[in-house]
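Task card 7
Instruction: Convert sequence to structure tokens.
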Amino acid sequence: MPQVPQDYVPVFIQILFGIGFAAFTLGFSALVGKRGRDSSAKDTPYECGKDPIGPTHSRFSIKFYLVAMLFILFDIEVVFMYPWAVIYREMLHYGLGIFYSMFSFIGILTVGYLYALKKKAFDWTHNPTPPVPLLDVKKPLLK
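Output:
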């Protein structure tokens, strides 16, 4: 059965509704949000009733981002195992190739995990030495 443009009308209506809703909520928020007045008390970060001490925007260690990226990497790799598990029994009729392919996949993941462990990528307290010496900012770079 050939598709005609009328089949896409509900999709276009939903897209227009989504864009309209987003524009309305942003506009209403800007309109209503103008009522408040800025003050130093309102601009002060809230620290559970205590006076804020130190900078409000502290820097995170790069380890946080490294562990997060490693988690996403290994988590996505596990997602690849679900389709394999669904068709595993059916594909066994064609031989053990599907078993060996997943075995090699898990082997590569294990090697990557062991490498990350060896490099202490999961250790929050480990401070690696930089591969190159840090520049001394007191000395001029060019003479």
